[in-house]
Design goal:
Blueprint: H1 3-11, H2 16-28, E1 45-47, E2 50-52, E3 56-58, E4 79-85, E5 98-101, E6 106-109, H3 118-127, E7 134-138, H4 147-158, E8 164-168, H5 183-202, E9 210-214, H6 220-232, E10 237-240, E11 261-264, H7 268-281, E12 288-291, H8 297-306, E13 308-313, H9 315-320, H10 323-339
Parallel strand pairs: 3-4, 3-13, 4-7, 7-8, 8-9, 9-10, 10-12, 12-13
Antiparallel strand pairs: 1-2, 5-6, 6-11
């Protein structure tokens, strides 16, 4: 039994958001023992010019303020995404706002982009050592009168200090944010952040990929519109997806009635179907990162076979701890050997 499994009953006695805060502090201070990462060239993946040593990434949400970059790669991640950060600091929605659904290894949250703002976030990015691929996940302030201006401001602030930038337009917990997924609005946003990148490159910075993070709750028409826009603008990648406002495959429990975005095991089937659809609609020409419901190597393998060139996790760590990263990578190698696969990249999209 792992150390985390022994400690989990104690950790889960804490209110969920407090447990999360303590977890971030423990990682940032180096208190959680490191794992020996699994290093195997068969797990290498390429996403939008980024060379990933393995496909398992940390999703945005765990480290909103970029506190853990000195230690987080010790657990075997192929890449890490910090945020969501907004231009101005904000406290988020009223508490309580995070709820465990323990029986189903799920979480419901309505945090609302609580973060310290871009100034301390950027300072921490600047201070980090080059020990792994780090993405900056950016969003708009709740009270912003010009959402696109917020994203452009953040692009200029984080660009020089991150390996890629994720434009988050899919959280359900900031009013009006998901409206940016509409075709006309998204087109204007993409043009704005691409222009910001061009300006950064004119100042001498290298070209860095920009990812767009979309929701799993998109209807068929919205998926088609985003795919068309992704092809027209040659987007570097789509992250599919975020939490869902639906309650798929959930047994009714008191937490089921809480408003907010659902993450964890019940999201796996829905998010994988959207991923598969986006792979088909983009004709395999736009790299995809699969997020939602992954809690095992089998889940990660299913995402990759559905079209993902990499995956991201967060909620599963609430229930299994960071040892899961090595567990997934080892499991992927075993699944590849079972199927006679020489490189993990060879199975991207084979089920799409």
């Amino acid at each position: 039994m792992s150390v985390f499994a022994l400690l989990r009953p104690v950790i889960h006695q804490l209110e969920p958001e407090k447990a999360h805060e303590w977890g971030v502090r423990a990682v940032a201070s180096g208190l959680i023992p490191a794992c020996k990462p699994i290093v195997d060239a068969r797990l290498n993946m390429q996403v939008a010019g980024l060379h990933l040593p393995n496909p398992v990434g940390l999703a945005a949400g765990f480290d909103k303020n970029a506190h853990t970059l000195g230690h987080i790669f010790k657990y075997g991640f192929g890449f890490v995404e910090c945020g969501t950060v907004t231009p101005k600091p904000q406290s988020g929605n009223p508490k309580p706002r995070v709820f465990r659904v323990t029986e189903q290894e799920a979480v419901i949250n309505r945090l609302g982009f609580n973060n310290d703002g871009m100034a301390p976030y950027v300072a921490r990015l600047k201070a980090r050592k080059a020990n792994g691929i780090v993405g900056a996940n950016i969003g708009k302030n709740k009270d912003s009168a010009d959402a696109i201006a917020d994203y452009i401001t953040l692009m200029h602030a984080v660009y020089a200090h991150a390996d890629y930038v994720t434009v988050n337009i899919s959280s359900p917990n900031t009013a009006g944010l998901r409206d940016l997924q509409a075709k006309e609005s998204l087109g204007a946003l993409v043009r704005g952040v691409h222009q910001a990148r061009d300006e950064q490159m004119a100042q001498g910075h290298a070209r860095k990929p920009i990812f767009i993070k979309i929701a799993p709750d998109l209807d068929t028409g919205q998926r088609e519109d985003i795919a068309q826009l992704a092809l027209e603008h040659q987007l570097d990648a789509l992250i599919v997806g975020n939490t869902t406002i639906s309650r798929p495959q959930m047994q009714p429990v008191p937490e089921h009635l809480q408003q907010g975005g659902l993450s964890g095991k019940p999201l796996m089937a829905l998010s994988t179907q959207v991923l598969r659809d986006m792979r088909r609609l983009t004709q395999g020409k736009v790299p995809l990162i699969g997020v939602g419901g992954i809690s095992s190597a089998e889940d990660a393998y299913a995402k990759i076979r559905a079209g993902a060139s990499a995956v991201q996790l967060y909620t599963a760590f609430v229930y299994q701890g960071f040892g899961l990263v090595n567990g997934i990578n080892a499991g992927l190698l075993a699944l590849m050997e079972r199927d006679g696969v020489a490189r993990l990249a060879d199975v991207v999209g084979v089920d799409a």
